[in-house]
Every structure is written in structure tokens, then in C-alpha cells.
Amino acid sequence: PKNQRISAVMAPPMPEMDEHTDLSQLYRHLLAGSGGVVVTSAGAPKAVLTRIDLIDYYTRRRDEVRNESHS
Q1: What DSSP letter does each residue of 39-53 carry, written as one string?
Q2: pTM of whole model > 0.90?
Q3: Whole-angstrom Cα distance, residue 57 to residue 24?
Q4: Do the Cβ atoms of 38 and 17 come closer than 8 Å?
Q5: 3-class DSSP state for residue 12?
Q6: What is the pLDDT along the chain (71 residues), one digit of tens a residue?
Q7: What residues form DSSP beta bridges with 40?
């Protein structure tokens, strides 16, 4: 829209987590409704992880385990 400020459409800030935080904590944030989590390294943003990133990770892990068991 014309003459609309960015702040009018911004969502609340995403939570931040250190890259060494246990994956289960990230999972809890995403289940609680957070759209993503900013991953930090030494206090600086490094990446944004979302639900689809977790789904992709677990799908790949499942496939790796299946492939190992069929070998």
C-alpha cells in the first residue's frame, strides 16, 4: 500500500538462540507459534531457522536411518 510504514506490517521480533542450544528448545519455540528463530554465534545473527527447516532435517535423518537399515 502506498504511504504505509514498514512498522505497520512487522511481526513481533523472533526469539534468538545461540547455535549451541539444544534442538529441543528450538522445537518448543516453533510449536509455541514463533514463525522462526534467529540463530546467533557469539551474539551475532547467523541464520534464521523455521518449521520447514526442522521438517526437512527430520525427513533427511529418517531417510538416512532407513537407508542404513536396508544396507
Answers
A1: EEETTEEEEEE-HHH
A2: no
A3: 13
A4: yes
A5: coil
A6: 678 898 888 888 899 999 999 999 998 999 898 889 999 999 999 999 999 998 999 899 998 888 888 87
A7: 18, 45
Cell numbers 526469539 correspond to 15
CA distances 11 to 27, 28, 35, Å, are 20, 19, 9
Q: Which residues contact 47 (CB under 8 A, 6 or more apart)?
A: 38, 39
* pLDDT in the model for residue 1: 62
Nearest-Å Rg of the Cα atoms of the chain is: 17
Query: What's the pLDDT score for residue 21?
Result: 95
| 3-class SS of residue 60 | helix
